[in-house]
Amino acid sequence: MVDSLKKPSFEEIRPGVKAPAKETILTPRFYTTDFDEMARMDISVNEDELKAILEEFRTDYNRHHFVRDEEFEQSWDRIDGETRQLFVEFLERSCTAEFSGFLLYKELSRRLKGKNPVLAECFALMSRDEARHAGFLNKAMSDFDLSLDLGFLTKNHTYTFFKPKFIFYATYLSEKIGYWRYITIYRHLQAHPEDRIYPIFRFFENWCQDENRHGDFFDAIMRAQPQMLNDWKARLWCRFFLLSVFATMYLNDIQRAKFYASIGLNARDYDVYVIEKTNETAGRVFPVMLDVENPEFYQRLDVCVKNNEKLTAIASSNTPKFLQFFQKLPFYVSNGWQLLRLYLMKPIDVAPSHGMVR
Ligand SMILES: [Fe+2]
Ligand SMILES: [Fe+2]
């Protein structure tokens, strides 16, 4: 086989340093927020729980977990061709997402220091965890002769501003969905060791517990701010964030089904399971859950998957850009329409059940 086929080439900013993936609506986002509003937040209603979580963070269960062992020390050239490309993309996306958590939590801990000590320390310790996660993934990329320049990413990535309450909805969900993603892969590979073609997946069990604790922290913060959860606006926003997190993951993963296939997973089944579990988990704190069991939910998402395939085909054709816009337009409109209809689907009201079971 030709060497270039075995080892796909990636665009590099310097030798061995991968050019970051182009930012799109589906790539991991970097956030910034109103730090003063965050610092003024009164957490006294739920301070005990937050302090208990802080104690857990201090314990640092994973202090010795992220150590590369001898299994990494071999040539990974046998992961080649398209699988190699998909692997590197997976590592890059995961690393970027972890690193975005690191940056946000680090900045929050810095800005809250002296003003809100419990929160400041929680954020500092969560940024410690995310730095480890991102570093471990970046090290894994080096097994494929590449790495990300995280300093470059810090300076050149776009930052999205969200008010604190939106930061909480979004980060809560991304931590919990991260937990379900990691644990599902871990359990699958535990049952099918023959599919574990690279050692990083072995680390996912303890790793996902970090994400679970981070999620619990945001759960506790939102409970300390009941107005974030109990009015009609909260219902609308929770629906919005649930849908955007689920849709983004689904569209991303179905597009990369071959990556999941390389570790023996069916991307669609995997996503359906992760969405179901995350929706259930979120229903313990959010006032609403999405009706993901309704067949309409995936039917509409699948229309978006098809639209995106068409959009990619148009973008990679030789048609002049100006004309491409008109070719793409109907698919954008269709995506917008599907997402609107998804948003308007009747959610499941779970607020009444809160306080009964947790
Ligand atoms: Fe993480
Ligand atoms: Fe996390």
UniProtKB/TrEMBL annotation:
GO terms for molecular function: iron ion binding; magnesium-protoporphyrin IX monomethyl ester (oxidative) cyclase activity. Residues 89-221 form the Rubrerythrin diiron-binding domain. Its EC number is 1.14.13.81. Its cofactor is Fe cation. Keywords: Chlorophyll biosynthesis, Iron, Metal-binding, NADP, Oxidoreductase, Photosynthesis. It comes from the Bacteria. Pathway: Porphyrin-containing compound metabolism; chlorophyll biosynthesis (light-independent). GO terms for biological process: light-independent chlorophyll biosynthetic process; photosynthesis. It is an enzyme of class 1 (oxidoreductase). PANTHER family: MAGNESIUM-PROTOPORPHYRIN IX MONOMETHYL ESTER [OXIDATIVE] CYCLASE, CHLOROPLASTIC. Catalyzes the formation of the isocyclic ring in chlorophyll biosynthesis. Mediates the cyclase reaction, which results in the formation of divinylprotochlorophyllide (Pchlide) characteristic of all chlorophylls from magnesium-protoporphyrin IX 13-monomethyl ester (MgPMME). This is Magnesium-protoporphyrin IX monomethyl ester [oxidative] cyclase. The lineage of its organism: Bacteria, Bacillati, Cyanobacteriota, Cyanophyceae, Chroococcidiopsidales. The gene is acsF1.
